[in-house]
Amino acid sequence: MISLAGRDILHAWGKFVFTGIGLGLLIGVTLTMAGVYRGMVDDGKALLDNSGADLWVVQKDTLGPYAESSSLHDDGWRAIRAMPGVADAANVTYLTMQVRRGDGDVRAMVVGVAAGEPGTPGWPPYLVAGRQITRSHYEAVADIATGFRLGDRIRIRRNHYTVVGLTRRMVSSNGDPMVFIPLKDAQEAQFLKDNDAILQSRRRTAQNPAFDRPGVPGLLDAAIAAQEGNPFVNAVLVRVAPGYTPEQVAEPIRRWKRLTVYTRAQMEGILVGKLIATSAKQIGMFLVILAAVSAAIVAFIIYTLTMDKIREIAVLKLIGTRNRTIAAMILQQALALGAIGFVVGKITATFAAPLFPKYVLLMPADSVAGFLALLAICALASVIAIRMALKVDPAEAIGG
To answer: For the chain, where are the alpha helices, taking DSSP H only?
Structure first.
């Protein structure tokens, strides 16, 4: 029995193979888009894992340091550290900004970590080169994705820092690499005003009659110092002691400290369900569009190839071939085209993923699901060609 797919591969292999390659490039884009979404989710989970925290204590009625702005007094961690079930607690600040090196700059998340030692919540859990921060000022640990090297001098706001350590896969929920600096320096970078703003603030304070009290010396100086200080952090990272559950520790903090506390599951829900929800919808729309375009391409190609074989199909009908057999041969042709396209697409996505600026995570389960979906699309796309083939009159095999 003649196989239409086998005949095309043998006698028109160029058209068939090049069509499969074109379809494969489209499938490669589809797999890469799915990998971008998976990478965004993995970035969010990596951010939570690398923080070393079980609980995130943030400003009341906010979504925390990653999704919304949050400000806490930097002495609040002591009271939280004394709460039952708290093994460790540390302040942390997060600020996404451009970090300058020489004439260029890099988009990064600057993380202010509290004084301590490796293992303190907020610190990078491991290094690939160099050492951790040991001084209270002007040292930094950077993710290698920033392109920084050991000994580089980088500028954050008005201060310069020396890169003393390098880490890997320390990224924000947006995929920006992290740069770790001492907490006091990070507070200054985030909350301290520039010189002109400070000067104007001092003038306004000095002109305020409320601070001009002869019987209260030093009131004006105290007001200025309070305005120019930066006693705030974005969150307190808490590690739960053995024998306690995160919720058991979180509830007393919410009740007595009047703060919002998130567990790991809740924070993951915020990152995935809110921060990347819009991006997920956009990627979903792209996948639907790409699936529709793939179906249209396969339907057009299969229809064209079938039209080229009208006479052969008429001969098959003339010798008594059943319609079911003819339909099966056209379906075989469509599935073969889809298989070639998937192989090309998978190879393309695998080699293209490392070139993307954002992390692309290609999961085997997505590849399997994509392959099955592609076979289903090819099967549906062959329906038009099958209906046309079944309407062929056997008399065409005899006619001119």
So the answer is: 4-11, 13-51, 76-81, 183-191, 195-206, 219-228, 246-257, 264-270, 277-307, 310-318, 323-352, 364-381, 383-390
